[in-house]
Design brief:
Blueprint (H helix, E strand, L loop, with lengths): L1 E10 L2 E11 L4 E6 L5 H9 L6 E6 L2 E2 L5 H8 L2 E4 L11 H12 L4 H14 L15 H13 L5 E5 L7 H17 L3 E6 L2 H7 L2 E6 L2 E6 L1 H6 L3 H7 L3 H17 L11 E2 L3
Parallel strand pairs: 3-8, 3-9, 6-7, 7-8
Antiparallel strand pairs: 1-2, 1-4, 4-5, 9-10, 10-11
Bound molecules: adenosine-5'-triphosphate (ATP).
Protein name: ABC transporter ATP-binding protein
Keywords: ATP-binding, Nucleotide-binding, Transport
GO molecular function: ATP binding; ATP hydrolysis activity
């Protein structure tokens, strides 16, 4: 589990994150959603140690990451897998070389064992007959699969994914979302995903945190979103009349089938109005 406690970050006069507190749970796909510029990427960079918060704490399984020096952070960094926007593959390396790279850099074991692990990961993301191809020769969805294989090759406890669906068609996006969700549950990973994608929110949002202008505005699950009363969240998620209608339809389905959770009518924990 990753716990954020009162994270603040400013660049010069500009306040980017204001007292953000949240928990990212193990075995769950924890989504951070919000408009462009709301601070999602800065928050993710704080979590992985690429940006130092001005104040607040980030706890990895209870250990204060923010208070550690670089040497102390190293074991936690080795448990982190990352998939950045655009997959960030090495263009001059083949698919298998891209996945071998973290193993060559950080893993123990001989060449044969490393190759076995590389192949296991490519098989797990269903990437067939692509080992010897270069990134320029494969589709966007395949690149994401390679990126995911590379991110999980060292058996991470924590997985950070920034905009997994950028540049993908809706169907391929769903496949990638399912893959991330399945891997998260299978290996009990604490996964954090930044996204704008409404399909991802509705399909994968075990735990969703909505950021608005550097504040945690709302948090809850994809089920809670159907009942959420927070106006800013609703304006963001159900921006069009079409989506407003869908929300109302889903609400009535839940009431009819008595599927709604624990008698709650207003989902999630509204934190700011
Ligand atoms: N290194 C930096 N120096 C100064 N300002 C920065 C820096 N990094 C981010 N910002 C600013 O912080 C704000 C939040 O940026 P961030 O990238 O976190 O937004 P976001 O919610 O991830 O947006 P998007 O969905 O478009 O990626 C923006 O106004 C951005 O310009």
């Amino acid at each position: 589990m990753i716990e954020l406690i009162n994270i603040r970050k400013s660049f010069g006069e500009k306040v980017i994150l204001q007292d953000v507190s949240a928990k990212m749970e193990a075995g769950k796909t924890n989504l951070i959603i919000g408009a462009s510029g709301s601070g999602k990427t800065v928050l993710m960079k704080c979590m992985v140690g690429l940006i130092k918060p001005d104040s607040g704490q980030i706890l990895y399984n209870g250990k204060d990451f923010t208070a550690m020096d670089d040497m102390e952070k190293k074991p936690i960094r080795q448990e982190i897998g990352m998939l950045f926007q655009g997959s960030a593959l090495f263009d001059s390396m083949t698919v298998e070389e891209n996945v071998m790279f973290p193993l060559d850099m950080f893993a123990r074991g001989n060449y044969k064992e490393k190759r076995k692990r590389m192949q296991e990961c490519l098989d797990r993301v269903n990437l067939k007959d692509a080992n010897k191809k270069y990134p320029a020769e494969i589709s966007g969805g395949m690149k994401k699969r390679v990126g995911i294989a590379r991110a999980i090759v060292l058996n991470p406890k924590y997985l950070f994914v920034d905009e997994p669906n950028s540049g993908l068609d809706p169907q391929t996006s769903l496949v990638i979302d399912k893959l991330i969700k399945d891997l998260t549950a299978e290996y009990n990973i604490t996964t954090v995903v930044n996204t704008h994608d409404m399909n991802t929110v509705m399909e994968s949002g075990d735990h969703i945190m909505y950021m608005h202008q550097g504040l945690k505005q709302w948090e809850g699950s994809n089920k809670d979103i159907i009942f959420a009363k927070d106006k800013k969240l609703n304006d963001f998620i159900f921006a069009s009349e079409f989506f407003q209608d869908i929300k109302e339809m889903r609400q009535s389905e839940y009431f009819q089938d008595n599927k709604w959770r624990g008698g709650k009518q207003e989902g999630g924990n509204k934190t700011n109005s």
